[in-house]
Amino acid sequence: MASGNTLQSYLERYALTSLEKRDKLESVIREHQHELDLEAGTIRFNELQFPVQVIGTESYNTLTWLWAWADEQSEVPASMLQSAVQLRIWGAEAGIPEFTMPSVDLNRADGQAIAMIAAEVCKASCYYLDSYEGGALSLLIFDKIIDSQPSFDRQHLLIRLADLLSRYDLNNRIAVLSYLTGKGLSPVEQRNMINCELESGERLIAEFDEAGRLIVVNGAAFEL
After folding, report:
1. Are residues 183 and 88 in the same domain?
2. Triad 138, 15, 87: Cα angle to 5°
């Protein structure tokens, strides 16, 4: 388990909330065509248009993440790099080298992990990965329409948690507790159990083993 300020500790703290934000975007745009306008600083999904910030790119050819502020060949306007610069400053203050190095190997930090942390640090409505041949452009989107969408119900929380844990080696208990406390839901901890009412009104009763792995949810075994 990570301790102190590390990329993993921030991923445990922020990932589930960022995945919820991503689901909120999906509930708004559903099936869509999208158009990114770098000069205007916007992205359009069908008839909806949102302001965006560019934070970096993930290359599947070089297997590296490149921060937008370090991309010398980019034609992205400076006005769209404000969040990327903010993240570099935050990374220096928090002691997270992956946020201050110009580029990072994907086996150390991939684009989605960085984007999930970035969405929370910058208080964005969500992150969005704009895929292209050989990589993906990582964006932050800001809009109250996205913010106003419903939070996770219990089923979707568990689905996204399983997806997250299948990809990243995180302390399950910290990830769940961070999501619940971050939303102000006042979870109750008792030994190896977390009991909380979700915003959906459903009760979440999560049991963990000594290593912090989620093993039982509301009396049923939790399986990845």
Report:
1. no
2. 50
One domain for residues 116 and 164:
no
180 and 140 fall within a common domain: no
Tokens found for residue 43 = 């992205």
Specify the pTM.
0.94
pLDDT tens digits, the chain, 224 residues: what are they?
333 579 999 999 999 999 999 999 999 998 778 999 999 999 999 889 999 999 999 999 999 999 999 998 888 999 999 999 999 999 999 999 999 999 999 999 999 999 999 999 999 999 999 999 999 999 999 999 999 999 999 999 999 999 999 999 999 999 999 999 999 999 999 999 999 999 999 999 999 999 999 999 999 999 87
Handedness of CA 63, 68, 70, 72 (dihedral sign): positive
Question: What is the rounded distance in angstroms from the CA atom of residue 130 to the CA atom of residue 138?
Answer: 6
Q: Which of 108, 127, 147 is the last residue of a domain?
A: 147
Question: Is residue 28 included in any domain, yes or no?
Answer: yes
Tell me which residue range forms the domain holding 22.
7-147
State residue 199 phi and psi, 5-degree precision: -65, -25
CB 87 within 8 A of CB 118: yes
